[in-house]
Amino acid sequence: MKQHSVPASGRSVDISDWRPEDEQFWESTGKRIAYRNLWISVPALLCGFAIWGMWGIITVQMLNLGFPFSQAELFSLTAISGLAGATMRIPASFLIRLSGGRNTIFLTTAMLLAPAMGTGIALQHPEWPLWVFQLMALWSGVGGGNFASSMSNIGTFFPKRLQGTALGLNAGLGNFGVTTMQIVIPLVMTVSLFGGLGGEPMTLVKDSGWIFGKIAAGTPTWVQNAGFAWLLSLVPLSLVCFFGMNNLTTVSPHIGGTIPAFLKIIWLYTLSFVPAGIGLYLYLPAPSGLGVLNMWLAMPLIIVSTLMVMKLTAFGTMKDNIAAQFSIFKNKHTWAMTVLYIVTFGSFIGFSMALPLSITVIFGISHVPDASGVLQHTLKNPNAPSALTYAWIGPFVGALVRPIGGWLSDKTGGSIVTQWISAVMVVASGAVGYVMWLAYQSATPEQYFLVFMLLFVLLFTASGIGNGSTFRSIAVIFDRQQAGPVLGWTSAVAAYGAFIAPVVIGQQIKAGTPEVAMYGFAVFYALCLLLNWWFYLRAGAEIRNP
Q: CA 31, CA 132: separation in Å to the nearest integer?
């Protein structure tokens, strides 16, 4: 199916004349098209975040339903989906230039149907081995990858003076997928959403919850709806993307038609699963893997191998385009902004993934000493707060303030906003660590829960504002051709926060020292505060406060 390029005033999905910096063009033609693509992009990205992040909630309910997996194994499911989503962002950051915005957003949104259905089927079979659930978590990474292509696409539609706001809206409202998922999944698990077609319920063996409070043990629960429910939105949304969005041939000059564009997307996404799968096999302990690499070796191995696989297997115009986009790695600002984006988005998505299970493990248990004075972490806490009642609040606030970060940065400059939020995160993460330490030594940990949640909301608020500020800086530092790939690349690396946070927090909880994880994050934020000052705020900086 060959596509035809026409000026923006035409009706083809391809637009060949795009001049957003031309005020007359923008007001007469560009503005309408840009905002139409933005408002379709937002719900598509929201669903991507929901599918990617759903294992943070599913694992809590698997624990409550008595699935035969340990806490560490459940944390691994959340970490696997986080790692897969981050890895898939690497090829996703190149997709817009290779295949066009409309083609990419449609196909990657439609791809979400597979992990949604697969997860729903697997959750009906608690007797299935762990590797099946790990495979579904890996597959859910498609949703995480979509962020890189979505942001690369939307930035090209808007003039630079509006890019901070536009990108903040796309990312901020898209990030509501995390909150939407954390509210919707506990809700749909309480009803037989699809009747006989949706399968039989399971019975809670532990108290669960939803936005309005606790759900008592013994209640029937349709855990499979955590996957199946997304079919109701993904099918119509995919059609809207296909018929309502546009490709900009000024950005994507070698699309080659719809089918070739789809094949390029499928090829690159398939390639990204190979290094992710191999890396996870080397990282995960037996029986799922070999357990020969730690996290800090597995991640760079997966990142480098994904890039190399893409470069070596590219063909035709893909080869030239990928080679051209690899030029971003020669720019020192690519690396500076990558680290700074880990502070903001890496924290947001990492804490979103890890918080529900952390609440369950830290506050759902009474931590009491045995006869020899050694603390035990096995006795159920009768006054425990439900993770499914509260975990959505932090990501909701973080997503809500994200457009504010873009707006503030458009007014004052991105780096000064990044500096302030980094300082807040240093203090807040250290304070969270101290509260975790108090709770994990208490027979009544619920007394610390309010302070714990307030501090986490502060962390989410700061990270949300910082997301907008880093977007603004990237849009100003890099030209239009490089800004999209840089946004995609930085978001890919930062998304490994969804892997790091569950693993680090899970490991420290297992060691009995959950506070150490938060103290480590505080040290990292402090170092990034210095990095931001050196590159963008000091008197002799090459680019000041972009």
A: 46
Whether the Cβ atoms of residue 146 and residue 44 lie closer than 8 Å to each other? yes
At a CB cut-off of 8 Å and minimum separation 6, what does 318 contact? 98, 264
pLDDT in tens, 191-244: 998 888 889 999 999 888 888 888 999 999 999 999 999 999 999 999 999 999
Amino acid found at 407:
W
String of b and e for 222-232 (b: at least 16 CB within 10 Å)? Answer: bbbbbbbbbee
Rounded-to-integer distance, Cα 374 and Cα 366, Å: 13
Q: Strand 208-210 relative to strand 213-215: parallel, antiparallel, unpaired?
A: antiparallel
Angle between helices 101-110 and 71-99 (to 10 degrees): 150
Residue 486 tokens, joined: 């840089």
Question: Is residue 495 packed enough to be buried (19+ CB in 10 Å), middle (13-18) or exposed (0-12)?
Answer: buried
Question: What is the model's pTM?
Answer: 0.83
Which residues does the chain have with pLDDT short of 70?
A: 1-11, 317-318, 321, 324, 480
Contacts for 317-321: CB closer than 8 Å, 24+ residues apart:
317/98, 317/254, 317/256, 318/98, 318/264, 321/94, 321/97, 321/98, 321/254
380: phi then psi, degrees, rounded to nearest 5: -65, 135
- Give tens-digit pLDDT for 4-45: 445 554 457 889 899 999 999 999 999 999 999 999 999 999
